[in-house]
Amino acid sequence: MISTMQTVLLCAGSMLSSSLVCPPTAVTLDAVQNAPVPTLIVMPPRPSVNETKLEKVPDAGHPFVPPGLKDQRGPCPALNTLANHGYLPHTGVVHLEQIINATREGFNMDYDLAAFLGSFLMLARGNPEYNLLSIGGEDEQVPSLPVKVDGKCPRGGLAKHGRFEGDVSMTREDAELGDDRNFQDNLYDQFLTFIGKYGDDSKVTGPNSLVNLQVMKHFKYQRFVDEQMRNPKLSFHASRLASSYNEAAFILKFFANGTDETLTVSSLGSIFRNQSFAPNWWRRASPGDLNLIASTASDINPPNTPFFVKPGENKDGKYVEDDMSDYKCDTGYYDFVYHNLPHTYDEISRGSDILGRNVKLLLENIARPFNCGTYKVVPNGPIDPDGKCERSD
Ligand SMILES: *[C@@H]1O[C@H](CO)[C@@H](O)[C@H](O)[C@H]1NC(C)=O
Ligand SMILES: *[C@@H]1O[C@H](CO)[C@@H](O)[C@H](O)[C@H]1NC(C)=O
Ligand SMILES: *[C@@H]1O[C@H](CO)[C@@H](O)[C@H](O)[C@H]1NC(C)=O
Ligand SMILES: *[C@@H]1O[C@H](CO)[C@@H](O)[C@H](O)[C@H]1NC(C)=O
């Protein structure tokens, strides 16, 4: 919800650029709370020190409350868990700043990594003019975008296939084959089989009960091989491949118990199945940043081994690898922005209205952790990736 203070700041700032934004007469508190308004995104302060102490999560102020019928939950277990514990709004409709704060409070995610993720999601599947994103499906609290951004395509929410939600995830089906939004028992059972085979032993929880790199390496490879065989439309380009392996790295680095950095089957089940923090769980002591996640992802998808999978897609039943010779700097970053974000953002980001300023800020947040120097990749993707809604440009 947008506070009165934010509205005041927003209106003061917007007098310069647009008189349409602020109603001429005072709005009641009720109207402010019920009707979202275009909102300049203000980044939360960067932490002046990195948190290095262990912290038990959740704290007393964040008990588990199951989602109600209208609350949005989607394909990302970590965000679902944060919403169920009230670190994110329980509705599942969130601002960028809330994602950055909640991922720090719940998982000690590094500021720049969280800003990249939240900003990409906002541009891909949220409404950057209103700074609102549904972590599940389309939601009436998130207004439609101006037609100039995405044509007449509905934005969806995080769960909408394409741009972010994609193939070869661990516990969701490929969109082409089934339910790509909700937890799938049969896939999780496969995951458990791999833990039973490759997991580490624990004195407390027993043999083969800890999730480790070997589990992830074998399970992720099996998931790829399986979808490559079953999904004729498998799409596994550089950004999706990065997200898919980063997800696995997140689990190892963010879901593990901060005390000894081990991840038990029951903690995993708690987050995946119950979308709740495990009892007596501690978040990691040092912030997890993109370098940590990318290097772990590279251990899960290790170059020069039989497990190595390269970006590509299925064409006529065959996996065809992508030619990435003209990708600049980081291939994942390049693909995220150049191929996935709608090309209309390029011009919009040069505007001085609220939407333009927000889009520019979000694009900068995406670039920052990749250290791609001064090179700026411009969005060049389609407004209608599925070709399922009418073009307007
Ligand atoms: C916190 O850690 C990140 C990397 O995780 C680093 O880039 C940043 O400079 C650190 N910030 C402070 C204030 O030490
Ligand atoms: C995010 O956290 C910062 C630092 O604790 C705080 O100042 C800010 O109000 C928080 N913002 C939101 C939207 O919760
Ligand atoms: C999920 O929650 C139920 C009910 O609170 C509990 O009995 C069960 O042990 C939990 N499962 C996991 C894997 O945490
Ligand atoms: C986390 O580690 C502490 C200390 O070893 C232990 O008491 C606690 O049960 C562990 N929690 C989980 C969820 O594994």
Descriptive terms for the model:
single chain; 393 residues; mainly alpha; Chloroperoxidase; 2 domains; 3-stranded antiparallel sheet; 8% strand; binds 2-acetamido-2-deoxy-beta-D-glucopyranose
Tell me what the structure shows.
Keywords: Heme, Iron, Metal-binding, Oxidoreductase, Peroxidase, Signal. One of its GO terms (molecular function) is metal ion binding. Its cofactor is heme b. This is Cloroperoxidase. This protein is mainly α. The chain has two domains: 37 residues, no CATH class; 333 residues, Orthogonal Bundle (Chloroperoxidase). 39% of the residues lie in helices and 8% in strands. It has 14 helices and ten strands. Strands 4-5-7 form a three-stranded antiparallel β-sheet. The site of one 2-acetamido-2-deoxy-beta-D-glucopyranose has 5 residues, from α4.
The side-by-side strand order for the widest beta sheet comes to 4-5-7
Kindly provide the radius of gyration, computed on alpha-carbon positions and rounded to a whole number of angstroms. 21 Å
Count of domain modules:
2
Largest sheet: 3 strands, antiparallel
How would the global form be characterised? globular
Total of DSSP H or I helical runs spanning 4+ residues: 14
State the name of the first-level CATH class of the largest domain: Mainly Alpha
Q: What class, by secondary structure content?
A: mainly alpha
